[in-house]
């Protein structure tokens, strides 16, 4: 009823206002619940203790598969240790046990498994099972980054950006995000886009920022669609286009679960027929 008519003149400004409000509310919910992975799938760095893309499906959660995985892990299989560590950390198919997950990652990392090194870094960064330790997080991220784990590049970039455990260094953050973005890590793409957007660690380039936000959105970053909606709404780095802005708000709502009354109102407002 706000956009697309439905018997009334289209009101894109009102629809955009509702979209902005609803998006802000939903972002707060998503971040509070740490539901910031790819739509309907866990993803790295927000749920970054997992490896680079492994997600057990229903068949792999069957008892016989779990028993096989546990047996292989007990025999020292690096892949099984990494997979089982992730399962134990998030409680997927097995009882959640961060301590056991940490031990699995340690054993896998000792055999040179880069994803496990990253997972250990993330646990130290967030204080999961262990005391928060930025120095240890940085050391694990550096080891994983040396093996070109894209999420590790992003982790180092985030530490340099915020100054957690290291002196703040926006140039180092930009370089680390660039390495992660080259491998299409969604967090690194989004963070690099933000640096271009704000002119941090590099010269401001709004068109480049929009391009990176689009790539981040394609690879599942939870906030990229909102950033694109705002860019199209304001004409930042791209020609202003209310219809495109509304579509990106709609995409964000559809990608995320947990429909509140505000989100439902926004959905109705954005549920257009023909573009105005």
From TrEMBL:
Q: Which residues form the signal peptide?
A: 1-32
Q: Does the keyword Signal apply?
A: yes
SUPFAM superfamilies the UniProt entry points to:
HCP-like
Q: Which InterPro entries match?
A: Sel1-like, Sel1_AlgK, TPR-like_helical_dom_sf
Sorted alphabetically, the keyword list is: Signal
Sorted alphabetically, the Gene Ontology BP terms of this entry are:
ERAD pathway
Recorded GO cellular component terms are: endoplasmic reticulum membrane
The family classification in the record reads: Belongs to the sel-1 family.
Protein name, per record: Uncharacterized protein
Q: Which organism is it from?
A: Chlamydomonas euryale
């Amino acid at each position: 009823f706000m956009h697309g008519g439905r018997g009334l003149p289209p009101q894109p400004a009102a629809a955009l206002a509702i979209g902005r409000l609803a998006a802000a509310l939903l972002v707060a919910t998503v971040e509070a619940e740490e539901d910031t992975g790819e739509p309907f799938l866990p993803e790295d760095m927000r749920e970054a203790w997992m490896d680079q893309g492994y997600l057990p499906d229903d068949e792999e959660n069957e008892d016989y598969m779990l028993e096989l995985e546990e047996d292989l892990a007990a025999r020292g299989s690096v892949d099984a240790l990494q997979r089982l560590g992730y399962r134990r950390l998030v409680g997927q198919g097995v009882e959640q046990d961060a301590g056991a997950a940490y031990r699995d990652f340690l054993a896998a990392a000792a055999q040179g498994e880069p994803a496990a090194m990253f997972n250990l870094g993330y646990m130290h960064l967030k204080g999961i099972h262990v005391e928060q330790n930025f120095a240890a997080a940085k050391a694990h991220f550096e080891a994983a980054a040396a093996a070109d784990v894209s999420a590790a590049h992003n982790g180092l970039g985030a530490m340099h950006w915020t100054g957690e455990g290291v002196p703040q260094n926006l140039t180092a953050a930009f370089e680390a995000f660039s390495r992660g973005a080259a491998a299409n890590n969604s967090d690194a793409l989004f963070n690099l886009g933000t640096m271009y957007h704000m002119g941090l660690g590099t010269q401001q380039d709004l068109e480049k920022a929009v391009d990176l936000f689009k790539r981040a959105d394609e690879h599942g970053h939870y906030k990229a669609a909102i950033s694109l909606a705002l860019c199209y709404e304001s004409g930042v780095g791209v020609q202003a286009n209310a219809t495109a802005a509304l579509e990106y708000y709609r995409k964000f709502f559809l990608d995320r679960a947990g429909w509140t009354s505000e989100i439902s109102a926004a959905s109705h407002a954005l549920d257009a027929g023909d573009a105005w």
